[in-house]
Design a protein that fits this description.
Helices cover 31% and strands 19% of the residues.
């Protein structure tokens, strides 16, 4: 059994990790970490875990946790993992970090967009960006995995084949994305109250959202050059889900057959990526509660632009499910182990 520990187990992503790991045939949770609920019963924080979890919440003592767990998940705000990790810890355990601390290779870019000083930049070069469908082989040998964000996972996977195969001009990419309110975390914030969100939709982080450089960096690797995109997220009144709609200019002469071939080449054998039939477009309700990514596209013959669309559950493939998928790779298990739940509906 893989012994797992979670720091930040009482946030939404942390609780989703608990849910998934409880059903994982090769994993055991040995540490339910939470600064806010130390010594409280986990099932009193999340009543859905009544009679499923008897443990009490512990602190974020990474040094002690590293001695007990084979892998540590840090589902914490930006900056915490970077402040805790050191060589001694990485010599004893593997870390899958769900924050942005090790996703961006340029520490200056990280500090600019997140507004904090990085506490352990010496580990950034070795951290592997944990987008399994793209970096599978690198993840297998990693000590430190930077679990991608929810908007980024959906946006990058939706566009990656087009950029990788040179079918779209990457500097023309515009991404319009929508997220459910769980993406903002469990903390009490006025803009996320029911009356503030219900019966409304709003853009936020316009031209300044922190996932922008992450998307640019990863798509830049695919393009073989630095790129700039426009990314605008929106908050919609639902609990879960990300829908990303991306637009870009196709290169001259690119055909629909080439586009379809590119998606099949990249994702034809991927278990968690479902390429939809022509004329069928992603909906968040069809991926809810699952680790699947649904992708579809439409070519606008009139403008020679492509509209590519992707949908994920932000708490599963956008956070906890992807983290478990990374864990499976780290320990030589089939990627779908513990992640074969069918999407929930209704």
């Amino acid at each position: 059994m893989i012994k797992t520990g979670i720091i930040g187990s009482t946030g939404y992503a942390g609780q989703e990790l608990v849910r998934l790991l409880l059903g994982h045939p090769q994993a055991e949770i040995v540490w339910y970490g939470s600064r806010s609920y130390i010594d409280q019963r986990y099932a009193d924080v999340y009543r859905n875990m009544f009679r499923l979890v008897d443990a009490r919440c512990l602190d974020d003592n990474m040094k002690e946790l590293a001695k007990e767990a084979d892998v540590v998940f840090t589902a914490t705000p930006q900056g915490l993992c970077a402040s805790l990790v050191n060589e001694e810890i990485l010599s004893e355990t593997k870390i899958v970090d769900l924050s942005a601390d090790f996703r961006i290779k340029d520490v200056g870019v990280y500090e600019k967009w997140y507004g904090i000083s990085h506490k352990s930049p010496e580990f950034i070069p070795e951290a592997v960006y944990g987008l399994c469908e793209i970096n599978r082989e690198e993840i297998k040998g990693a000590r430190l995995v930077a679990n991608p964000g929810c908007y980024t996972t959906c946006s990058i996977l939706t566009l990656y084949p087009l950029v990788k195969e040179g079918l779209v001009d990457p500097d023309t990419i515009i991404i319009d994305a929508k997220s459910g309110t769980s993406g903002a975390g469990r903390g009490a914030k006025l803009p996320n109250l029911f009356c503030e969100v219900n019966e409304s939709i709003k853009p936020y982080g316009v031209t300044s959202h922190r996932h922008t450089p992450e998307i640019e960096e990863q798509l830049g690797y695919a393009a073989g050059k630095e790129i700039l995109i426009n990314f605008t997220p929106h908050l919609v009144p639902m609990n879960r889900g990300i829908l990303a709609t991306a637009y870009g200019n196709l290169r001259p002469g690119v055909t629909g057959e080439q586009v379809q071939a590119a998606y099949e080449k990249q994702y034809g054998e991927e278990y968690f990526i479902r390429l939809l039939e022509q004329g069928v477009y992603p909906e968040t309700r069809w991926v809810e509660g699952s680790n699947f990514v649904d992708i579809g596209y439409k070519i606008d013959e009139r403008t020679h632009r492509i509209v590519a669309m992707g949908a994920i559950d932000n708490l599963v493939k956008g956070a906890a499910g992807q983290a478990v998928q990374n864990m499976n790779l780290l320990f030589g298990l089939p990627e779908q182990t513990g992640l074969q739940q069918a999407p929930l509906f209704p």
